[in-house]
Amino acid sequence: MRGTAVTDAIPVTDAIAVSGLRKAFGPKAVLDGLDLAVPEGTIYALLGPNGAGKTTTVDVLSTLLPADAGEVRIAGHDLRREPDAVRAAIALTGQFSAVDTLLTGAENLRLMADLHHLGREEGRRRAAELLERFDLVDAADRPPVTYSGGMRRRLDLAMGLMARPRVVFLDEPTTGLDPRSRRAMWDVVRDLVADGVTILLTTQYLEEADSLADRIGVLDGGRLVAEGTADELKRLVPGSSVRLRFPDPAGLERAARALGAGTADPATLVLEVPGDGSVAALRALLDRLDDAGVEAADLTVHTPDLDDVFLALTGRPAPGEVPS
Amino acid sequence: MTTLGLTLTDSATMLRRNLRRAVRYPGLTVIVAALPIVFLLLFVYVFGGTLGAGLGDPSGGRAEYVTYVVPGILVLAITGGAQGTAIGIAMDMTEGIIARFRTMSIARASVLTGHVVGAVIQTLVGLALVVAVALLVGFRPDANALEWAAAVGVLTVTSFALSWLSVAMGLWTRTVEAASNLPMPLMLLPFFGSGFVPVESMPGWLRSFAEHQPFTPVNETLRGLLTGTAIGSSAVVAVAWCAGISLIGYLWARANYERRPAR
Fold first, then answer.
1. Could you please report the per-residue DSSP string of chain B?
2. Which residue ranges does chain A devote to CATH 3.30.70?
3. A14: which of A2, A37, B44, B89 lies 20 to 30 Å off by Cα?
4. Cβ contact B100–A63 (<8 Å)
């Protein structure tokens, strides 16, 4: 039996609260009962292969698409009943550039200021401030067609931040960016959260989720198949292992006999021993090798990364590695 | 701010955006103005002598035909503007920024209103060019200031109505190419009216169509205001047509805008 809600706990406000979200395109269910809770001021990464429903989730939460069923509250507002209040609290930066290609960078920003009714003075001040912050001052009077991918993405995000949104949706914010631009974008995202903004980002890059997110949800087939911190998720896959390489086949054989466990590969002279990755277990292992009088040429400890998690949870290898 | 105030403010912002884009991308405006000017020259210098003789006035000829045909050319220019508007909004819909507008707390209709008002202004600029060329090739209107103002009014409401209709068409189609083809019948329609030849010269079945299609009362009103022919009930009928087309275009455009896929 489930206990009643704890009433004396300090309530944690969820900036994004989703329950039972469903969305189908024709007969194909893209979101199949999605539940999501993102506390204020944190980064949540939705990780999943193409077609898992990441973009559809962002489209529904940002009021672009109506949901078929489910409850959604963004910044305390009900998505269905108060869409305009939700829109006033959010910003969306998609994988497709949402800038006006015929206007200059500065004009794009001032357009946003006008649409937020900031007033001429304040609008110009804010635009200048954002150009400065996103390192676009030199490009301010050029149209975005002359920008690099990273600059365009920064302008896109800057436009979204004009009205100081409380919740920011980043749909694959670094897809197609070179590693340096990607890291610059990560820094921007971290700064936003430091200011108290809540971020929901979708990504195919495990590295990105690992390095940015407070919590990660693995989306597959329109629902979360796992959720937790990066460390919690890594604990879901069977443990770590120690890989020992030996200078000759005789050493490999002696070690395998002494340890009585692991898989030996005579071709590479490597012995892989499963373990829990703890220092104690490692010391015990080395002691036994010492007792047997075998010396390993080198040793590596392999701990599972999100790749392994992804493979274990979705039955597919990770779709794309960060190109570098 | 009131809802109406917000709608007006946001529409004005969107209008500024569209005008700025029109200045940056003048190709469309030039094409929209150039086509009726080509037609004007064609009808005056190629067909004008013969058609003018057919107008029945003993003094008839090219000079008289210029005066007769200019209102028709102006209406033709408005339909050309409508085609440009359909292309413009279809192109705009391919831009990611429209998805951004939809996620912002702004007056929903302002994107469309900005396009329509921008299109009307663009068309009026084009019309001014056409009138300038018409004056150069011998158009001699006898309108006073008030009649000119009324003529500009008629052109504005006609352009407004066709802009809503073409915005709806541009939203309804899925591609820019289709958006450029769909308003084609609109550009042919002025020829089946009183714009280029008197409807009395047409066979009976065509004549009854020509008399009752929307561009004929618009033409007759313009001709009456600019050159002093009888207007009769044409002005009222013209305004009624424009009001009806505006309303249908507006509702169709809103429905299409809401229904379009997000991005």
1. --HHHHHHHHHHHHHHHHHHHHHHSTHHHHHHHHHHHHHHHIIIIISHHHHHHTT--TT-SHHHHHHHHHHHHHHHHHHHHHHHHHHHHHHHHTSTHHHHHHTSSS-TTHHHHHHHHHHHHHHHHHHHHHHHHHHHTT------HHHHHHHHHHHHHHHHHHHHHHHHHHHHSSSHHHHHHTTHHHHHGGGGTTTTS-GGGS-HHHHHHHHHSTHHHHHHHHHHHHH----TTHHHHHHHHHHHHHHHHHHHHHHHHHHS---
2. 240-303
3. A2
4. no
